[in-house]
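User: Can you write out an input/output pair for a complex, sequences first and structure second?

Assistant: Here is one pair. Inputs:
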Amino acid sequence: MSYSSGRQFLQLPGPTNVPERVLRAMSRPTIDHRGPECGRLGLEVLEGMKEVFQTSGKVVIFPSSGSGAWEGALTNTLSPGDKILMFEVGQFAALWIQVAVKLGLDVEVVQTDWRHGVDPHVVETKLREDRDHKVKAVGVVHNETSSGVTSQVNAVRAAMNRARHPALLLVDVISSLGSIDYRHDEWGVDVSIGGSQKGLMLPPGLGFNAISEKALAASKSARLPRAYWDWQPMLAQNIHGFFPYTPATNLLFGLQESLNMLREEGLQNVLSRHERHGEATRRAVRAWGLENVALNPKEYSNSVTAIYTPAGHSADELRKVILERFNMPLGTGLGKLQDRVFRIGHLGDFNDLMLAGTLAGVEMGLDIAGVPHRKGGLTAALDYLTESLREVASPAQV
Ligand SMILES: *Cc1c(COP(=O)(O)O)cnc(C)c1O
């Protein structure tokens, strides 16, 4: 393969661009994982992750992909044969459901059209019907990365409360953590499941569980077999910033730096930035005359946009053209959306000009690949970005 000059635009909805600062922080000699430096590092990143999850409770960090943290959430809180209510809102939800099935849980799956999020009314109805409280947990994917649909987790919690049902609420926030508003404590979530390679701007390799008091209590009696994922030895060691087995030391250096960056920018500003880039991307899609997979504007994702190519036009061919001509990998259509959808990741370490470059690459690619569309998507996005900056630079500040 020949050298491809310039910087690659890695516009996947994860893994995302890893900023220089994080790369430099990680390029250090590996330290003694039982020594004092690692203890201090452990304490610092565990504390920092609480801010990101917006919790005062416990957070654990696994050396794993996000899928490992799914398994951690399930095995620590549930017992063989326990019933769990899950919603197949897209491919990631479908994969998590498979994990639950393989672990021997009794999974009740609510199907959707993959274009809408979890319906809180369905949650309420299902839980009201469950008079003898057989359902032990409700599993929800906050931001479904395959479809660009964000479910209203606070509304799901409200529905569970209205039904006065004691089930645990388990939420996958792998592609929303650090990019879309999420509040573990305030929204009454019992286990939040995170990963390092999306909003947190890190390479893949860290999985997270944020744990409520109720989930912690459930873990004392939960009987699903668990060893590597067991919270108890992890929490016991975490008190002093250590881990029961070798942690991903250099990724923790990276996490320390990405937490610094999130704090410097301010979590609220980070979230507003993602909102702005989400909206600009959607304006481009509308101007192109293409169709967003997400149908409900309240559920539009601010970290990823999934877009249909017109019938008869291959989304994979379009992605191939864009990769070959512009060195920009875009997200593929997953599961039943394969070849029908391409996805633009607009999360993590990202700014206006990177979005402009991304949308320019898509617009040129649509043209070269012969995908029917209207011109002007990039312009519509730039107009919005400029307009929203003018609002910020109000006369008082000029
Ligand atoms: C990326 C992603 C996952 C899977 O994470 P891995 O690190 O690949 O295991 C799960 N859920 C969602 C919503 C994701 O975006």
